[in-house]
């Protein structure tokens, strides 16, 4: 997410590289956008605490503190002023915490937060220059580093509410063919990461972000539409899950509105955003149906982040008045 002031406090000119005309709004600041995201996350936080109680609070608190602390640490290491006041580090940490299972050991969120701040942002130059979504970088790091700690037992923690114990819906589908009822699936009364089970809460918060124009609506639209179409085809071919099951299961709704819409690591053009979302949704369904991994939102978003520069280049809009004529 770009800012008008560098981390060291020195003002620099803002250069817009795109076809005219240009209409700028000074009200769309990083702090305002992060404030919108925090408000939109409130329904998910409430559902997570109601279902997983102290386990959810612990995961979110540890990840948030570690990410904010890591942001300050790496900024000082680089000789820059930490920009903690804009709320971006807090949002990254909160999203990371919501992506963790309730029974994950405390050190998973702590190390994940440091990885999100360091590997996700600092190594690329800080806020606005990162290529990949920082929260998902942290989540991928701890998943690879601590596979046992994030295994099935982490979703069966005693701290979790009784209504949410058992295998996650996608794991149950893959292992035994069990189909979760739609009601509990959308309300969050299933096992899963603390922030991924409340699909309705994620939808409500995501719509708020789109209305506020903090999130680009083309990304979740493309992502959910692609996932629904492929899920429908799989269902017609004999699959157990309907499109409604796939949309409500796992982190698809959470990822579509709160992770894939990161303005730094997603495309700039409206057409490119839709392509990015559709590609992410297609990859999620590809992993869910053809791989041994029951969920695919995190990997799908990181893969599409890598394609963002190519998508930007391929979807450059036509300037007003038509393309610039080339000399013979």
Report on this model:
This protein is mainly α. It has a single domain (31-314), classed as Orthogonal Bundle (Ammonium transporter fold). 55% of the residues lie in helices and 0% in strands. α1 runs antiparallel to α8 (199-211), α3 (88-98) packs across α4 (106-118) and α4 crosses α5. The longest helix has 24 residues, at 54-77. It starts with 29 loop residues before the first helix and ends in a 14-residue tail after the last helix.
Name the shape in a single word.
globular
CATH architecture: Orthogonal Bundle
Any idea how many domains?
1
Under the CATH scheme, which class?
A: Mainly Alpha
Mean pLDDT: 86
Residue stretches low in confidence (pLDDT < 50, at least 5 long) are 1-7
Quickly give the structural class: mainly alpha
Classify the helix fraction into a percent range: 55-70%
Beta strands, count? 0
Number of helices: 13
Main pleated sheet: none
Which series of helices and strands comes N to C?
HHHHHHHHHHHHH
Cα-to-Cα separation, first versus last residue: 40 Å
CA radius of gyration is: 20 Å
Tell me the β content: under 5%
Looking at CATH, which topology would you report? Answer: Ammonium transporter fold
């Amino acid at each position: 997410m770009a800012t008008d002031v560098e981390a060291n406090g020195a003002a620099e000119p803002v250069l817009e590289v795109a076809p005219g005309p240009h209409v700028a709004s000074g009200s769309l600041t990083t702090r305002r956008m992060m404030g919108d995201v925090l408000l939109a996350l409130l329904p998910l936080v409430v559902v997570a605490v109601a279902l997983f109680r102290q386990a959810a609070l612990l995961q979110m608190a540890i990840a948030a503190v570690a990410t904010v602390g890591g942001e300050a640490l790496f900024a000082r290491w680089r000789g820059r002023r930490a920009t903690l006041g804009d709320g971006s580090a807090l949002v990254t940490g909160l999203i990371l915490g919501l992506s963790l299972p309730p029974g994950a050991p405390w050190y998973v969120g702590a190390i994940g937060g440091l990885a999100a701040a360091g590997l996700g942002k600092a190594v690329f130059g800080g806020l606005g220059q990162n290529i990949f979504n920082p929260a998902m970088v942290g989540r991928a790091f701890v998943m690879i580093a601590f596979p046992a700690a994030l295994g099935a037992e982490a979703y069966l923690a005693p701290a979790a509410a009784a209504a949410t114990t058992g295998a996650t819906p996608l794991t149950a589908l893959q292992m035994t063919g069990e189909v979760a009822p739609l009601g509990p699936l959308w309300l969050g009364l299933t096992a899963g990461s603390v922030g991924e089970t409340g699909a309705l809460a994620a939808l409500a918060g995501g719509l708020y972000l789109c209305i506020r124009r903090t999130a680009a609506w083309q990304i979740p639209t493309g992502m959910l539409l692609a996932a629904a179409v492929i899920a429908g085809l799989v269902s017609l071919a004999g699959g157990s899950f309907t499109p409604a099951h796939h949309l409500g299961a796992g982190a698809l709704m959470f990822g579509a509105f709160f992770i894939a819409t990161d303005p730094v690591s997603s495309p700039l053009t409206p057409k490119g955003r839709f392509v990015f979302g559709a590609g992410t949704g297609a990859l999620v369904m590809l992993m869910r149906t053809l791989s041994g991994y029951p969920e695919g939102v995190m990997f799908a978003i990181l893969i599409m982040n890598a394609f963002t520069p190519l998508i930007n280049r391929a979807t450059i809009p036509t300037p007003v008045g038509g393309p610039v004529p080339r000399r013979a």
